[in-house]
Design goal:
Layout: H1 20-39, H2 54-63, H3 75-83, H4 85-90, H5 95-105, E1 109-113, H6 114-117, E2 123-129, H7 137-150, E3 156-163
Parallel strand pairs: 2-3
Antiparallel strand pairs: 1-2
Helix pairs in contact: 2-3, 5-7
Pfam families: Tail_P2_I
Protein name: Phage tail protein, P2 protein I family
InterPro entries: Tail_protein_I
């Protein structure tokens, strides 16, 4: 039953559908039930993050203790931070979560630990794309706060390398030309195979042997 389109009279028995009092009550209460059905949606919060306004998002971020959150962030970024806040808290202090947070707020980001680029122990650096966010003093300070909020306490940020990505359309065309040269030489004999029939005759002489046994009797 869909409460948004509920008709209480349709739920009555065939006898009650003809009762004037029942008809009047159903006509009066059906609109109230529909209104109530729409208002109950407001009780759904986490499943409606994509539909909440910024005021509700700011309150929800405070409730869920989103470590890196400012009211001037883009509303799409706010929604993503709130949706993944539980995951961020579980993995807080790991390189993966620092990298994911920087990617969420700024763009493609990569964290490299000291042994990956020949740095000093316990240091790391960040490579961050600023194509969509820019690299103003405020943005860099924001990035620094983000890193400090999610990195572990024993690791230290050595430097931030920023880069821009150019997006464009390239048209590439090519053509191939093929040719073939065939040289035909006069026919010549390269080998001769000879086949012949050979008949061989053999003969055997019969031998007669006489044996004499002595003494004769």
């Amino acid at each position: 039953m869909n409460l948004e389109n509920v008709d209480l009279l349709e739920l009555q028995t065939s006898y009650m559908k003809n009762d004037p009092t029942t008809i009047a009550m159903c006509k009066a209460l059906s609109p109230q039930f529909r209104k109530l059905a729409n208002e109950t949606k407001a009780c759904l919060i986490y499943s409606r993050i994509d539909d909440l306004d910024e005021v509700a998002l700011d309150e929800l971020a405070w409730q869920m203790h989103v470590d890196f959150y400012t009211s001037d962030l883009n509303i799409d970024i706010k929604r993503k931070l709130i949706k993944e806040s539980l995951l961020y808290h579980r993995k807080k202090g790991t390189p993966d979560i620092v990298e994911r947070m920087a990617t969420t707020v700024f763009g493609r980001s990569k964290l490299k630990e000291w042994f990956e680029y020949g740095g000093s122990p316990y240091y790391f650096k960040m490579e961050v794309e600023i194509t969509n966010q820019g690299a103003s003093e405020y943005q860099l300070k924001l990035l620094d706060n983000l890193i400090n909020a999610y990195k572990n306490k024993r690791s230290w940020l050595e430097k931030i390398e920023i880069f821009l990505a150019s997006i464009g359309t390239f048209f590439i065309a090519f053509a191939s030309v093929f040719s073939e040269e065939v040289t035909v030489y006069p026919w010549s004999i390269s080998s001769i195979d000879v086949f012949a029939k050979l008949n061989i005759s053999t003969g055997v002489n019969s031998l007669v042997e006489t044996s004499t046994v002595y003494p004769k009797i």
